[in-house]
Write a structure and sequence with these properties.
Layout lengths: L1 E6 L6 H10 L4 E3 H9 L6 H7 L4 E2 L2 E2 L1 H8 L3 H25 L5 E5 L14 E6 L2 H9 L6 H10 L3 H7 L2 E4 L4 H20 L1
Parallel strand pairs: 1-5, 1-6, 2-5, 6-7
Antiparallel strand pairs: 3-4
Helix pairs in contact: 2-5
Length: 197
């Protein structure tokens, strides 16, 4: 089995590309979706997060805005949160890999693949990338996003140019969706041929 890591900075189209891999039959582990489930209604992390950060959960699980206000800009608080979240996500990822061990190719969709050292978990890395103006337009169109929030997020992420330099494959996402889909299909074909050899 080849484990392919997918990453990219905010607004680069990572979710769209992950969906394309899934549509082509590649099992996809979505780290963000796992976090949402673990922090959602009856999620396994809700009680622990409430204990560590009182007043940040409710009937629907973790109130992401309230939690973000508590941890953003506070390194110690962020480390405490990550100490809860990262091991839980790691357990889910291991279960995913075991469940799909007979597949020739699986995809781990991990937003902070480089920033958190998760690159060591994968055999090959795909980075999605678009021009900075495309990225900014996409992100600023999101509800509640501001220039200041975007700049803060970008400051926490490895620059796109460095991610591209460290990637085995780069998928440009600033053009037509079919061009992006063609890139996905070429990568799958290349890796499945390698897995078969």
């Amino acid at each position: 089995m080849i484990v392919l890591g997918l990453t990219g900075s905010i607004g680069m189209g990572k979710s769209t590309v992950a969906a394309m891999f899934a549509e082509e039959g590649v099992p996809v582990f979505d780290a963000d979706a796992v976090v949402h489930r673990l922090q959602g209604p009856e999620g396994m992390l809700v009680a622990e997060i409430e204990a560590a950060f009182p007043g940040t959960t409710g009937e629907r699980g973790v109130m992401r805005g309230a939690l973000a206000e508590r941890v953003l800009g506070d390194g110690e608080a962020m480390r405490r949160l990550e100490a809860l979240v990262h091991p839980a996500v790691a357990r889910e990822r291991e279960a995913f890999l075991v469940a799909h061990r007979e597949q020739p190719l699986v995809l781990l969709d991990i937003p902070l693949l480089f920033e958190k050292g998760s690159w060591s978990l994968v055999d090959r890395i795909v980075v999605v990338s678009a021009a900075p103006e495309v990225q900014r337009a996409r992100v600023l169109a999101r509800p509640g996003m501001t220039e200041a929030k975007l700049d803060h997020i970008l400051a926490l992420q490895m620059p796109d140019s460095e991610k591209r330099a460290r990637a085995d494959y780069v998928i440009p996402t600033g053009g037509p969706l079919e061009e992006t889909r063609d890139s996905v299909r070429r990568i799958i074909a290349c890796l499945e041929a390698r897995a078969d050899s």
